[in-house]
Amino acid sequence: MKTLLRLQELDLRIETCKARESEIPKQKEKFLVQKERFEAELAEREEAIKRLQLAQRECEGDIEQKQAQVAKYDEQLFAVKKNEEYQALLHEIDLLKKQIGTQEERIISLMVELDDAKARFEEDQKRVKAEIEALDKQCAEVDAELSEAVKDRAALEEKREPLLEQVEPGLLSKYRRIRANKTTGPAVVPLRGEICSGCNMNVRPQIVNEVLAGEIRACSQCGRLLYDRETLSKHEQNAGTSA
Ligand SMILES: [Zn+2]
User: Are 119 and 202 contained in the same domain?
Assistant: First the structure.
């Protein structure tokens, strides 16, 4: 029984390790999602700069085209004979020059926007870089924690192995059956007076007496194996062996 309790202690600690091992990667997952969000934010800022630069180039191209058109019309002015045609050309030239003026104004406001966007990008880049560095550090810590948990569990499992052979096979299989059903928590619990400390229900007097006499009985409510602390230590002292 004493060995079984030692086994149970190891099993419960192994259980805790396993819970940690499955919890830790979730933590890392969260960090990675945050990191992606930061990177996306920065990419979005960079994209905005590219859009402004493209718009500026388009404006410049448009101005060049219109200036070429103006130059062509200027030449044609010399060639036209009729006054109406002359007036029409002048009108066209005037219109183009107005459009060019509008585009030039647009370029100026685009340049202002671009300066702003670049400044913001640089600021964000610094901030995001710091955030990402912090997240990378946290990820590394999480990795270290995980390998620690794996190492802890391996050590516990190594200690557990020899105990399996020392526990009486019938008792061991009972213990395993209870653990399989319960999945968490102890399968062997001490009596507290006449109460099962596993489910906090009263245990039948006959069972209490048998447990006090050193027999192995299960709680009829929750099925956990019961033992009495005092009986167990007396038994240890007398027999010096464990089962
Ligand atoms: Zn119980």
Answer: no
C-alpha R_g of the chain: 41
Q: Are residues 195 and 153 in the same domain?
A: no
pLDDT in tens, 62-118: 999 999 999 999 999 999 999 999 999 999 999 999 999 999 999 999 999 999 999
Give the predicted TM-score (pTM) of the model: 0.68
Give me ligand 1 centre to Cα 113, in Å: 73
- Residue 182 CA to ligand 1 center (angstroms) comes to 12
Place of tokens 């995001």: 128
Q: Are residues 137 and 218 in the same domain?
A: no
* Ligand 1 mean position, distance from CA 194 (Å): 11
Residue 242, judged by CB atoms within 10 A of its CB (0-12, 13-18, 19+), counts as middle
Distance 200 CA to ligand 1 centre (A): 6
Domains in the chain: how many in total? 2
